[in-house]
Amino acid sequence: MTTTVFDTLIERRTSGCLKWNAYDEDVLPVWVADMDFHSPEPILKALHQRVDHGVFGYQFDDPPVRQVIAQRMNERYGWSVETRDIVFVPNLVSALNFVCTAYAEPGDEVLMSTPVYPPFIVAPGNSGRVATMVDMPIVRSGQQMRYEIDFDAFEAAITPRTKLFILCSPHNPVGRAWTRPELERLAEICLHHNLTIVSDEIHCDLLLDPLQHIPLASLSPEVAARTITLMSPSKTFNLPTLGFAFAIAQNETVRQQFEKATAWFLPHPGALGYTAALAAYRDCQPWLDELLVYLRGNRDFMADFLQSHLPQIPYTHPEATYLAWLDFRALNLPASPYQVMLEKARVAFNDGAAFGKAGEGFVRLNLGTSRERLREVLERVRAVVEDL
Ligand SMILES: Cc1ncc(COP(=O)(O)O)c(C=O)c1O
Is 169 in the pocket of ligand 1 (CB under 6 A)? Predict the structure, then answer.
């Protein structure tokens, strides 16, 4: 096999990195969603130039970044976004919290499909709103799992207090890139019940199968009028610590409600965040194309390994994201698979239980690492399971 830039093993502990410093040195971390890869060269070059400029005074806006985002939405999705529709934020977890205060009152309910990225579940409660979780059914095909949406259960969970639906598209952790009919059905239900929709599309560039990402708000002007979309270059280009993300709200009232909720609470992105975002969206498509080939290879390597050596562990086939989701329930472990694997395999996954009750007995595996490390992780799990 030819090696690529993504095969380079980079020592990350020296950079204050969360993923590699949270556990003992002998633990292989495949948890928090960042990648063990360098960011693309054009971003590094742009950051060097910005640092060399040497002045870091206030910066509340960046018209070229607005322009490049609007253009990207138009070109990639045929979604006509105006530069004024964009609101810059430093990260999306904060935005997930502020949408709850912007579009719901204390005691109101916020709907979501579970298992889901833990901050979705926690955010409503942080401001006295209530998370309503609707579990997605699993469709099995051999060892492979595919999550779907039970639209009847979804609609049945809506009450007069439900004000907001937070969609994860593509979905973390189950790796689905929702189809147009699925999105249309969800939007139809939300419109029917007058819900505001927050569509977290942070994983939109990371499609591993030959599918097209469809921004929910691009479905129709009616859907756009009720939707605020959250995006960021941070997952795609591995930049979360640079503090740049954005929201798109085409309806002025929806946008103003968000701006009002965040003003003076949420800082603007930092200068290096704007710089990296511009370079990412303008100059890094060739790198992204190579990344997707590598991630697809990791996903398929994992599937082959599990099929060959760990047939007791069903797994998702991530259509998008670099996150896989493994079901350890058939092993009847004495504790959560997260704990058992941490203690015995010295591998740190994400504990599935944090993704909602539907995640108990599961772990999330981050495939954004070198093939060699991924092999080591899977070999360690295999050794423990064979020893049970
Ligand atoms: C769906 C989703 N939203 C938001 C985030 C985090 O975004 P940020 O780092 O901008 O807070 C993640 C990170 O994994 C994610 O998967």
Answer: no
Q: Where residue 198 sits, what CATH number does that domain have? A: 3.40.640.10
Q: What number of other Cβ atoms are within 10 A of residue 241's Cβ?
A: 15
Around Cβ 45, how many Cβ atoms within 10 Å?
A: 12
Considering the entire predicted model, what is its pTM?
0.98
One-letter amino acid at 80 equals: S
Atom 14, ligand 1: residue with shortest CA distance? 33
Give the chain's mean pLDDT.
98
Task: Decide: 275 in ligand 1 pocket, CB within 6 A.
Answer: no
Return d(Cα 1, Cα 372) in angstroms, integer.
Answer: 12
pLDDT in tens, 6-22: 999 999 999 999 999 99
Strands, sheet with 130-135, edge to edge from the N-terminal-most edge strand:
86-89, 245-249, 227-231, 196-200, 162-168, 109-114, 130-135
Question: For residue 33, what are the domain limits?
Answer: 5-40+285-386
CB 46 within 8 A of CB 64: no
> What mean pLDDT is predicted for residues 351-371?
98
Q: Say how many domains are in the chain.
A: 2
